[in-house]
């Protein structure tokens, strides 16, 4: 039987081989799309050289000096055809090095990078030699990674690292602090756009003059901080000037008059910003790009410094230019897209296998936030908001990610345009719900004007740029492993006879489901204990290893107190951290299966189930069929959902009690990036019928294929499993895959808007869609060359399907596609 | 009061305004050869057996003692199993044995429907009663609609029109939207293809038009190869409707999604060509309103 499939606009473009050559940014894109990223060593080189010369000085000052050295020496670029100057590495797609983070195993990692399955990189032999001989040796014994590993107590260590030389992750209670310098972050871009870095420099100089010359703190802490801010401001200004010089040189040699004029304009702008306040939309965009790019040079922030509320802070410039007749929508879109293609060439390089596997498809999240509310609680949508949406429809590049804030009074036009953009099928935008986020920020101590003005950052985090002060990345916890340990009395099949977890009893000993559940909850709590022990050490050690003079200079509280953002405590700050539940659906379904099949219906015994699991259900198909048919999360079935709510509640209770000791909000989050794949690789067959070592369920989504009641049921199960009476909640990431048929035509758009409004009413945090036919994904797997441009929604981001590992591709294919009756 | 329901389907987008939940009631007076829900026709619960899904060859013996898999014939078993159906499918882990049809009360049904109410409120979504022919279980269907109204849930129904006029009249008073099928205007050919003549259907529709002018009528015709895929037949229906108030007319393309289910029920599928000619279908679609 042949069936005519409705195709999404993205699928149609691929089928008809339609590119973006007619656009300037499209031409730039064609020059690098699909090329393998190459490592650029300059950042690693100049930082290492500088750090060798500044030993013994305050860390924040060393960081500023290293930035200055980079600004002075690193190659600068003004690309052909580009309107926006600046890149942080060589032409094409590039990644840069952060040896202060992972220099201890940099030499080893460099050798395996080109071959690794997820997110591979190339490097020239000369550069590899330089890393091995000059960079890596300096950092051995000095990295945060090593200090943390040494500080983690023995008992916690076995949940954290394998016993090997590079301290590879064990994927049980997984620290994520050592593959990035901080969690995702967003700057207050308004400040440098308004006063420029000369203004910031003046501010620091004034504060220097006010220091108490007899105060030990002022002398040893505040003075170096302020000096670092001044050096950093000089550095970014110098760096921009060097771009201006290059543009002038290029203009001189340019024979095409039109391009010559463009280059001279670039030069003029780079002479002005970010030193001085931006005076036009073009200047503001260039200034923001310099700041953002220099932030990447400063630090490896997990998943990149986000772009913040671009439709808000750029709007005054757009509006003024438009009133003067200097700009129109097309020009604004062109300038933004020039930034997008520049962004897309920067690749977030993770050297550790865990980092690479967590962020597959070269993920980075410099999310642009649009929509939402103004600081005084009115709807914030403006003309520029629609230009961001239009750009994603007309030029759906993987970067930057786009986050649309939704609230009760979001205008219909906005909701419809958001829905139309989702329908394109490339996964943009993701939706973040003000009606959930704002009250939670208030409950955690924010003022209304701060809470209304939050920016989406990273996957699904929400930051208040001048109020958030927590930068320590936190643990990803594999609770499916806790479940496995409950079945095997503290052991995991992957790790043989080693007892890792608690010995909560053999499968033969459990007489009721409640006993089994209590045993699981003890394992769960034990994992939490070790995660928090890790975190305690992470918080303690970070300030000794990381500083961020640039980021701190853009933070109100840091400037007031003259403290680096990494300081363990900044007065008045709100420390929003989180820990991650990996395998939520897997654990719920496994517990529901045991409850139903073993203890309630008594169809099989727990030892029988364990035996089937030990054999990965090979030869035990009837048992697998039995457990698979048990109630599952994602179907709005209270049988399973009540279990989910209980697990969630126990974790909230734990963090409510113990995060105080850490002095931060360590909230429960369900946002796996792509880590449900590597975490799955250590967990053998689970009681819900999941096969050994395949991916765990992702985020707060149902187990792959277990949601049989359509997309409304997944939202309702999410709603049912949340404990709204606790404030210790962070994001839940929710993937919905719909067939293009579901959203066909104007009526389809209207019904997608209805769906989004229901999601908003349910106060769920996050939502994103893949609008695609399963057949398309399978064809792309078979014929990658024809589908290079196929974007799919992965976790909190979209990535090129063909750049994902086979495991992750399979995982995405296996997410249930919802059609409609 | 209870009735027999064979499916409740949330997130339905193509059967009335907004996002809807369809409640399928079992039993239909028609026997359309192309019916895509053959499990909906009999008013009683039925056991279906899917040989593909059965894992008896992999050592599954969970249904032993309830039935013999060897030589299993669904239709025979249906006869023997009346009244034990539920037990029969509950033992089967693979889904090879399923039961179409479950006794439910209007309150139970509305509890399920209301669970999705967040998705109705912004559009004009709500409950759609379908079948089978929902008004074959007339009083039960009316009680479901009354319960929906009590809960302020928007209502729609899909009917073949072959039902008690008084039931339909009462239902129409409780409905916000009706989807009404007309297959053929020629009564004799209607009887030939569906098993019943069409006079009652047409008079019921006339009743809806004359007595319920406020109720929107969405008239639909499934276009079936060799049955009504002609300009004459579709044109006749279109002319029959034209000039009336407050209706829309839609042609439903023929599909064969239901063929597999015939086999599961131990029945054969009628000899109908695979599809309507594309050009002809395009021509016919011009008659939609």
Mean pLDDT, all residues of chain A: 92
What is the average per-residue confidence, as pLDDT of chain B, rounded to a whole number? Answer: 89
Number of helices of chain B: 10
Multimer state? heterodimer
How many beta strands in the DSSP annotation of chain A?
A: 20
Largest interface: A-B, 33 and 31 residues
Largest sheet of chain A: 6 strands, mixed
User: What is the beta-strand fraction of chain A?
Assistant: 5-15%
Structural class of chain B: alpha/beta
The value of Rg of chain A in angstroms is: 26 Å
Regions of chain A with pLDDT < 50 over 5+ consecutive residues? none
Termini separation of chain B (Å)? 39 Å
How many helix segments of chain A? 34
Helix/strand structural class of chain A: alpha/beta
Tell me the Rg of chain B in angstroms.
Answer: 20 Å
Work out the helicity level of chain A: 40-55%
| Elements of chain B, N to C (H/E) | EEEHHEEHEHEHEHHEHEHH
Strand order of the largest sheet of chain B: 5-1-2-6-7-8-9-10
- Describe the main β-sheet of chain B briefly: 8 strands, mixed
Portion in helices of chain B = 25-40%
Strand order of the largest sheet of chain A: 7-8-9-17-16-20
List keywords for this structure.
heterodimer; A: 821 residues; alpha/beta; six-stranded mixed sheet; 34 helices; B: 289 residues; eight-stranded mixed sheet; 10 strands; 20% strand
Topology of helices and strands:
The complex is a heterodimer of chains A (821) and B (289).
Chain A: H1 9-15, H2 24-30, E1 38-40, H3 42-53, H4 59-73, E2 94-96, H5 99-102, H6 106-112, H7 125-139, H8 144-151, H9 154-160, E3 173-174, E4 185-186, H10 190-210, H11 216-253, H12 257-272, H13 281-298, E5 305-306, H14 310-313, H15 315-323, H16 329-345, E6 346-347, H17 353-358, E7 368-371, H18 383-394, E8 402-406, H19 412-423, E9 430-433, H20 434-443, H21 448-452, E10 455-457, E11 461-463, E12 476-478, H22 479-487, H23 513-542, H24 549-553, H25 556-561, E13 576-582, H26 584-600, H27 606-614, H28 621-628, H29 638-662, E14 665-670, H30 676-680, H31 711-721, E15 729-732, E16 735-738, H32 745-761, E17 766-771, H33 774-782, E18 791-793, E19 798-800, H34 806-814, E20 817-818
Parallel strand pairs in A: 1-2, 2-6, 4-5, 7-8, 8-9, 12-13, 13-14, 14-15, 16-17, 16-20
Antiparallel strand pairs in A: 3-12, 9-17, 10-11, 18-19
Helix pairs in contact in A: 2-16, 3-4, 3-7, 4-11, 6-7, 8-23, 10-11, 11-12, 13-16, 16-18, 18-19, 19-32, 22-23, 23-29, 26-29, 29-31
Chain B: E1 3-12, E2 20-25, E3 46-49, H1 74-81, H2 85-90, E4 97-100, E5 102-104, H3 106-115, E6 126-130, H4 138-150, E7 154-159, H5 165-172, E8 177-181, H6 187-194, H7 199-211, E9 216-223, H8 231-241, E10 247-253, H9 259-264, H10 278-285
Parallel strand pairs in B: 2-6, 6-7, 7-8, 8-9, 9-10
Antiparallel strand pairs in B: 1-2, 1-5, 3-4
């Amino acid at each position: 039987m042949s069936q005519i499939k409705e195709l999404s606009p993205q699928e149609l473009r691929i089928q008809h081989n339609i590119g973006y050559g007619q656009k300037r940014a499209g031409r730039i894109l064609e020059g690098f799309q699909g090329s393998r990223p190459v490592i650029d060593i300059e950042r690693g080189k100049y930082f290492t050289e500088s750090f060798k010369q500044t030993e013994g000085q305050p860390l924040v000052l060393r960081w500023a000096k290293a930035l200055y050295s980079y600004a002075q020496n690193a190659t600068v670029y003004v690309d052909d055809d580009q309107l926006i100057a600046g890149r942080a590495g060589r032409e094409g797609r590039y990644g840069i090095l952060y040896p202060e983070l992972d220099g201890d195993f940099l030499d080893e990692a460099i050798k395996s990078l080109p071959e690794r399955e997820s997110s591979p990189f190339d490097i020239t032999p000369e550069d590899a030699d330089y890393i091995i001989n000059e960079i890596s040796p300096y950092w051995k014994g000095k990295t945060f990674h090593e200090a943390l590993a040494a500080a983690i107590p023995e008992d916690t260590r076995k949940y954290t690292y394998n016993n090997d030389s590079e301290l590879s992750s064990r994927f049980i209670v997984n620290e994520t602090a050592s593959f990035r310098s901080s969690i995702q972050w967003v700057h207050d871009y308004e400040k440098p756009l308004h006063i420029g870095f000369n203004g910031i420099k003046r501010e620091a100089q004034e504060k220097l003059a006010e220091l108490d010359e007899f105060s030990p703190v002022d002398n040893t802490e505040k003075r170096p901080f302020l000096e670092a801010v001044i050096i950093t401001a000089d550095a970014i200004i110098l760096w921009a000037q060097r771009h201006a010089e290059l543009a002038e040189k290029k203009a001189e040699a340019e024979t095409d008059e039109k391009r010559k004029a463009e280059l001279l304009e670039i030069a003029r702008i780079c002479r002005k910003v970010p030193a001085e306040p931006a005076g036009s939309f073009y200047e503001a965009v260039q200034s923001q790009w310099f700041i953002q790019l220099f932030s990447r040079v400063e630090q490896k922030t997990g998943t990149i410094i986000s772009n913040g509320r671009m439709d808000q802070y750029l709007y005054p410039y757009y509006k003024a230019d438009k009133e003067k007749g200097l700009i129109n929508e097309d020009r604004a879109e062109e300038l933004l897209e020039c930034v997008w293609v520049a962004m897309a060439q920067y690749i977030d390089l993770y050297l550790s296998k865990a980092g690479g596997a967590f962020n597959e498809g070269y993920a980075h999240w410099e999310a642009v936030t649009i929509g939402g509310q103004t600081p005084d609680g009115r709807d914030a949508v403006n003309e520029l908001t629609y230009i961001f949406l239009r750009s994603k429809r007309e030029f759906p590049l993987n970067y930057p990610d786009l986050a649309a804030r939704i609230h009760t009074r979001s205008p219909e036009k906005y909701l419809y345009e958001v829905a139309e953009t989702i329908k394109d099928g490339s996964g943009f935008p993701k939706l973040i719900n003000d009606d959930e986020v704002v009250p939670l920020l208030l409950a955690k101590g924010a003022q209304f004007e701060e809470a209304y003005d939050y920016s989406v950052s990273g996957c699904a985090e929400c930051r208040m740029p001048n109020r958030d002060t927590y930068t320590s990345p936190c643990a990803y916890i594999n609770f499916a492993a806790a479940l496995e340990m409950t079945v095997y009395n503290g052991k995991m099949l992957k790790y043989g006879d080693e007892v890792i977890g608690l010995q909560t009893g053999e499968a033969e000993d459990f007489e009721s489901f409640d006993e089994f559940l209590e045993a699981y909850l003890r394992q769960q709590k034990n994992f939490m204990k070790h995660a928090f022990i890790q975190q305690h050490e992470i918080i303690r050690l970070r300030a000794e290893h990381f500083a961020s003079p640039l980021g701190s200079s853009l933070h109100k509280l840091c400037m007031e107190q003259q403290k680096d953002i990494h300081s363990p405590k900044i007065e008045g700050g709100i420390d929003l951290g989180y820990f991650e539940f990996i395998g939520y659906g897997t654990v719920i379904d496994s517990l529901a299966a045991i409850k139903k099949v073993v203890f309630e219906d008594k169809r099989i015994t727990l030892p029988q189930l364990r035996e089937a699991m030990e054999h990965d259900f090979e030869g035990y198909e009837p048992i697998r069929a039995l457990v698979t048919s048990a109630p599952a999360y994602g179907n709005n079935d209270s049988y399973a959902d009540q279990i989910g709510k209980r697990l969630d509640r126990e974790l909230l209770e734990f963090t409510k009690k113990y995060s105080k000791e850490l002095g931060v909000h360590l909230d429960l989050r369900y946002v796996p990036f792509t880590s449900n794949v590597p975490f799955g690789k250590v967990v053998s067959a689970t009681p819900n019928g999941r096969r050994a070592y395949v991916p765990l369920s992702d985020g707060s989504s149902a187990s792959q294929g277990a949601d049989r009641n359509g997309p409304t049921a997944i939202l309702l199960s999410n709603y049912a499993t949340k404990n709204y009476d606790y404030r210790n909640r962070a994001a839940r990431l929710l993937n919905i895959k719909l067939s293009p048929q579901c959203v066909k035509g104007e009526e389809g758009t209207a019904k997608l808007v209805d769906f989004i409004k229901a999601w908003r009413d349910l106060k769920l945090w996050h939502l994103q869609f893949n609008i695609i036919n399963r057949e398309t994904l399978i064809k792309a797997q078979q014929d990658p060359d024809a589908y290079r441009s196929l974007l799919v929604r992965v976790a909190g981001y979209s990535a090129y399907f063909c750049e994902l590992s086979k495991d992750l591709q399979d995982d995405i294919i296996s997410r249930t596609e919802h059609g409609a009756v | 009061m209870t009735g027999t329901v064979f499916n409740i389907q949330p997130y339905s987008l193509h059967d009335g305004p907004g996002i809807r939940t369809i409640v399928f009631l079992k039993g239909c007076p028609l026997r359309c050869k192309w019916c895509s829900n053959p499990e909906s026709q009999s008013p009683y619960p039925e056991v279906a057996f899917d040989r593909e899904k059965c894992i008896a060859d992999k050592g599954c013996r969970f249904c032993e003692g309830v039935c013999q898999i060897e030589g299993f014939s669904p239709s025979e078993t249906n006869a023997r199993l009346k009244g034990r159906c539920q037990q029969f499918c509950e033992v089967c882990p693979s889904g090879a044995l399923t039961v179409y049809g479950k006794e439910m009360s209007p309150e139970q049904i509305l509890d399920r429907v209301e669970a999705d109410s967040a998705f109705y409120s912004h559009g004009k979504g709500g409950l759609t009663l379908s079948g089978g022919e929902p008004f074959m279980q007339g009083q039960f269907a009316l009680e479901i609609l009354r319960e929906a109204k009590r809960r302020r849930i928007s209502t729609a129904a899909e009917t073949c029109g072959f039902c008690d006029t008084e039931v339909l009249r009462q239902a129409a008073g409780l409905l916000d939207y009706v989807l009404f099928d007309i297959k053929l205007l020629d009564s004799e050919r209607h009887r030939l293809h569906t098993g019943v003549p069409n006079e009652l259907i047409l008079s019921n529709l006339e009743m809806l038009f004359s007595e319920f002018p406020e109720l929107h009528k969405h008239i639909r015709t499934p276009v079936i190869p060799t049955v009504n895929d002609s300009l004459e037949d579709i044109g006749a229906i279109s002319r029959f409707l034209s000039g009336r108030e407050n209706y829309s007319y839609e042609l439903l393309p023929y599909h064969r999604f239901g063929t597999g289910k015939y086999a599961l029920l131990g029945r054969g599928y009628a000899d109908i060509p695979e599809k309507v000619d594309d050009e002809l279908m395009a021509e016919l679609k011009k008659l939609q309103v």
